Each structure stands twice: as structure tokens, then as C-alpha cells.
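Hello,

Our lab assistant flagged a job as stuck in the queue for most of the afternoon. It eventually completed. Since we weren't sure the result was trustworthy after the delay, we are filing this so someone can double-check. Below is the sequence as submitted and the structure that was eventually returned. Let us know if re-running is recommended.
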Amino acid sequence: MTHDPATMQPVILGTDDLRPLPRATRIARSSREGVDLLEEHRDTFIDELRLDHDLGGDDSIMPVVTLLAEAAFEGRPFRVGTVFVHSAHPIGAETVVRSLTRWSYRVRRTTA
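-- returned structure --
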């Protein structure tokens, strides 16, 4: 059976504690949920990955970033079209952009 790519819904995942992310097909609200969501989609092409740095309290996106970086380091990076980093925390957002760019993920900084 073949699938027509024109009829397939894009996979858009997000990790953000507050924003609704209306384009996202799935949203994680904590770093733990974000890691779980990525692991669930390990062998899936992810069209867009939307990440917020600050996830409430002491939680941040860094466990998700670490998972992505470790996968790339091991030679098996996640297949992601574009990672969009949106955060009201400019230093944290820049850290995410630099970390993922270093591992050859296509990353864009967007406004929070």
C-alpha cells in the first residue's frame, strides 16, 4: 500500500508549558514529557519541532536538547525538518540554538 504525501498530516511537535501552539499535532508541557514525546517519535520524520526554553519552576528544555545532541553524537540524529526555538528568555534560547546548530540540526529562533 502506498501513501500519498499530499494527504499525510505533517508531524509538528512542541514542548511549551503555557502556549497553545495551534499548529502542533502534539504538545508536551514539561521536559520529561518532551523527552517522552521525542522518544515516541524516534523513527518518524518530524516536520517541525517547537521548543520553549523555560518550562515553569526549575524546569527547562535542556533535557530535550541533551537527548537531541546525544542522538547526533551517537550518529543517529533525530530526523527533524526545522527546530523552532521560541522563548522570552533570550540567553536560554540562544543556548538552545547554539547547541542544536552545533549538531547540524536546522534551527530558527522565533519570537515568543
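-- support follow-up --
The delay was a queue issue, not a problem with the job. The result is valid. The chain is about 30% helix and 20% strand. The longest strand covers residues 80-86.
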